[in-house]
Write a structure and sequence with these properties.
It contains six helices and four strands, in the order H-H-E-H-E-E-H-H-E-H. The protein is mainly alpha-helical. A hairpin with a 4-residue loop joins strand 2 and strand 3. The longest helix is centred in the first third of the chain and has 21 residues. The chain binds iron/sulfur cluster.
Length: 150
C-alpha cells in the first residue's frame, strides 16, 4: 500500500495505538524484571502460547520484515519462531506482543493480574476490530497472516 493511501494511514494510526499501549504498560508502577531467559518463548516448557490481536501481529511482522525476512523463520516445534536459536534472543524484542510483556514467567514477577491490564486488552481488541481482525490468533498463525498483508 502506498504511504498516502487512506487505508495505510488508518493502519499506521492503529499501530501507533498499539505502541502507546506497550509504552503505557511499561510505565505502570508494577515490578517487572524480564531477564531474557527465554523460557516463556519455549512453549513446551510453559505449556502456553501467546495469542496476538491483529495490531500486535502487524507490528511484530513489520519488525520481522525490518530484519530482512519476508517469511516466518523455521523453528522447533513448540518454540516461538521469533526466538533466534543462534543468539537465544527474541528477533523482535522491542515489538514483542502484549502477552510476552505480561507473561507468566516467575523470574520476571509472574503473570500480571488481569484487572491491572484489562483496559489494555480491551483497547487491543478494539484495534483488532478496526483493522478487520477476527480476534486473537496463536503467534505463528497471527504472524503468517500479518506477513501476507504487509
Ligand atoms: S515474540 Fe519474542 S518474547 Fe515473545 S515468545 Fe516469541 S521470542 Fe519470546
Amino acid at each position: 500500500m502506498p504511504a498516502d493511501d487512506p487505508n495505510q494511514i488508518a493502519r499506521e494510526k492503529s499501530l501507533s495505538k498499539v505502541r502507546s499501549i506497550y509504552s503505557e504498560l511499561a510505565s505502570l508502577p508494577i515490578e517487572r524484571n524480564c531477564q531474557l531467559r527465554t523460557e516463556c518463548c519455549q512453549f513446551h516448557i510453559t505449556g502456553k502460547t501467546p495469542f496476538l490481536t491483529r495490531g500486535e501481529a502487524l507490528l511484530a511482522a513489520k519488525a520481522l520484515k525490518a530484519t530482512g525476512r519476508t517469511s516466518l523463520p523455521a523453528s522447533k516445534e513448540d518454540t516461538c519462531p521469533m526466538l533466534d536459536p543462534r543468539t537465544s534472543r527474541c528477533r523482535i524484542y522491542a515489538n514483542r506482543p502484549f502477552g510476552c510483556r505480561t507473561h507468566f514467567c516467575t523470574a520476571a514477577g509472574g503473570a500480571l493480574a488481569r484487572k491491572d491490564v484489562l483496559d489494555f486488552i480491551h483497547r487491543l481488541e478494539e484495534i483488532d476490530e478496526d483493522l478487520g481482525g477476527d480476534g486473537p490468533r496463536p503467534i505463528s498463525a497471527a504472524l503468517e497472516y500479518a506477513l501476507e498483508d504487509l
